[in-house]
Amino acid sequence: MKTEDALLQELLEKGKEKYSSENLKKAFIFAENAHKGQMRKSGEPYITHPVEVAKILMDLGMEETVIIAGLLHDVLEDTKVPKEEIEKEFGKDVLSLVEAITKLEKLSFYPTEAYRAQNLRKMFIAMAKDIRVIIIKLADRLHNMQTLQYHDEEKQKRIAKETLEIYAPLAHRLGVWDIKWRLEDLAFRYLEPEKYHYVAKKVAETRKEREKFIEKAIEIIKEELKKAGINAEVTGRAKHLYSIYQKMLRRGIEIEEMYDLLGVRVIVNSEKECYEVLGIIHNLWKPVPGRFKDYIANKKSNNYQSLHTTVIAMDGKPLEVQIRTWEMHRVAEYGIAAHWLYKEEIKKPDYFEEKLSWLRQLLEWQKELADDQEFLESIKSDLFEREIYVFTPKGDIIALPQGSTPIDFAYAIHTEVGHRCRGAKVNGKIVPLNYVLKNGDIVEIITSKEEGKPSRDWLNIVKTTQAKNKIKQYFKKIAREETIEKAKELLENEIKRNEDWLREFLQKTEISLNDLIEHPLGKSFLNESGFKEVESFLLSVGTGDITPQQFIEKFRREYKKDLVVPISSEEKREQLVEGVEISGLDNIMMRIAECCHPIPGDKVIGYISKGRGIVIHRIDCPNLVNLKKTHPEKIVPIEWQKIKGGKYKTGIEIEAIDRVGLLKDIIERVAQARINILDLATKVGKDGIARIKLIVEIDNPPAFYYLMEEIKKLSDIISVRRLQEFR
């Protein structure tokens, strides 16, 4: 068992060439103190785990901020250290990474499909925000898999299954090959122990013979490259146990029948030399037909590039050869993490932005999918399934998941090509639209010259999420346009029925729907009803969720207010705002505005209203904007003088990442502040964000502001703000 001092020295030695020893030591000591007394299942000090995670991240060449976050990644989850201390010592960027990892630590992908889908959404949201979070999570998972033997069998199988189904494919999709194969082999060991040991034993039995064969092949290749003046690194390349097992299943053969368990990798300095080496290899030995793949010209979706060929080498045995440049090698081994291997002054490769755009596109598509099962299926298609490569007639390559059809191909080219697709030719022959494309197919889409109109039946044919979404969006748009036209007609009819008093109220001879929507009262109605866009409001009117009468009533209430009248002292005692006195006014009825609900301490202004006396508004109330313009003479300055313990209604709007127990935590904070809840509304969006509106009654304004600060401290809270308007 290593001591803490030995672990620190090991960390500093590994990072001495790229990272600040002072910063690494500081982070190590901080993490060690935070985890003091905690032990791993293995019996080792807990600090062993974050150190191993940091070392894996160093192997990937990650920046220093990420290494430090790796050392601290369990501090918030497993210790009582406040997040403010991490920010003070290491900065906001490190804290942000540690907080994001802490949230991912709580995610589980079992036992139900719905639960799995919801948590996958959260993971992809985290990935899109900062890809470094997932790199740290992969390193964390790798070390946990390396120490899985210390857990009980049930937990071993659950974690291994999760690793094989979620984390290994994710590493593959991000191109982090080095982590991907290690996760697969470790998961294979715990999920299929008998098969794992069978494959391992068979590989070991023939290792010496195969190694002699590879050593001879390397010697021959090196000699030929030297003659050609090509400087290259030539090494043996072992197949990993899980990939061998998968190949046995796919080909239906035993391990003794597999002659490509070892291959040769050639790494050169330029793309031109890759093809020169390929020519030399094919001159040395006869290539196997159908086994050459050019992933340099046709790179994989995870940006992998290499030339692959299989030749019949010495003694008639097949030999796999990979040829690539050093840059291609870095991407092949480390995927998106290779971005951090480049020095700052060197231009970063385009694949980094390509990978982030893939993630962002995935998030955009998933927003269209309300159903968890549908989302899960789309993820399986876009992330976890094998790909095929097909060609346009001009020779451009299109990558699609296995099972894709010509319609998927058409939408991959362009939305309009998909909409106007009427037929397809594959390799020069007409095929039905449900034809399943194969690797190497040349696909030509036959389009209509008229406006594109997809068929609803295509939804049962297409494979890709992109195609499904584009087809659904088309039919949603058609339905939306019809619904909006219906809503406009209903609203305009209601305006005509109320035209006389609306003209008087708005002081216009002609009234249009746009006049009412753009009016502060119209904007207020949309805001109160939760509509950020006019189109959403019109869709709700068209579907009957909101009636035209409800909208017009907003204006009617304001119109019906009568003139202000003085009242007696006795009436004044009943009608004055309870609990406060307003300076400079006497014998006038006063009311709290029902739109913005000011409370003592708010900056306020008065408006002389018909029949309601002075209406007290918050100074930032949106309704005051128009009132100040149209009736500036009715605006009166007022101020709070003394609080007498009255009751006031106000509201809070909360945005948070949805989770189990969120509402319970918020309500507990309200109860602790001794504040009464009048109304509560919760809505969870497709993006997994919960939006909560709390209407409360208070008699102590400081308690209200204290409550807001307490809610902000809860985990997964994004924002807490005072409601500007509500009814």
Characterization of the model:
The strands form five sheets. Strands 1, 2, 3, 4, 5 and 6 form a six-stranded mixed sheet that branches. The longest helix is centred in the middle third of the chain and has 33 residues, at 465-497. The protein is of the alpha+beta class and 727 residues long. The chain has 30 helices and 19 strands. Helix 8 (113-129) crosses helix 17 (350-367) and helix 11 packs across helix 12. It has five domains: 4-199, Hypothetical protein af1432, CATH 1.10.3210.10; 201-341, Beta Polymerase, domain 2 (2-Layer Sandwich), CATH 3.30.460; 473-559, no CATH class; 569-636, no CATH class; 648-722, ACT domain (Alpha-Beta Plaits).
SSE layout:
Elements (H helix, E strand, L loop, with lengths): L3 H12 L5 H14 L13 H12 L4 H9 L2 H4 L4 H8 L1 H14 L7 H17 L1 H16 L6 H21 L3 H15 L1 H13 L1 H21 L5 E6 L2 H11 L10 E7 L2 H14 L1 E2 L5 E2 L12 E6 L5 E8 H9 L15 H18 L4 H13 L2 E5 L5 E5 L4 H8 L1 H5 L1 E6 L2 E3 L11 E5 L17 H33 L1 H8 L6 H6 L1 H9 L5 H10 L4 H12 L9 H7 L14 E3 L11 E6 L3 E6 L4 H8 L4 E3 L10 E10 L4 H11 L3 E9 L4 E10 L2 H12 L4 E6 L5
Parallel strand pairs: 2-6, 12-14
Antiparallel strand pairs: 1-2, 3-5, 4-5, 5-6, 7-8, 9-10, 9-11, 13-14, 13-15, 16-18, 16-19, 17-18
Helix pairs in contact: 1-2, 1-3, 2-4, 3-4, 3-9, 4-7, 6-7, 7-9, 8-9, 8-17, 8-18, 9-11, 10-11, 11-12, 12-14, 21-25
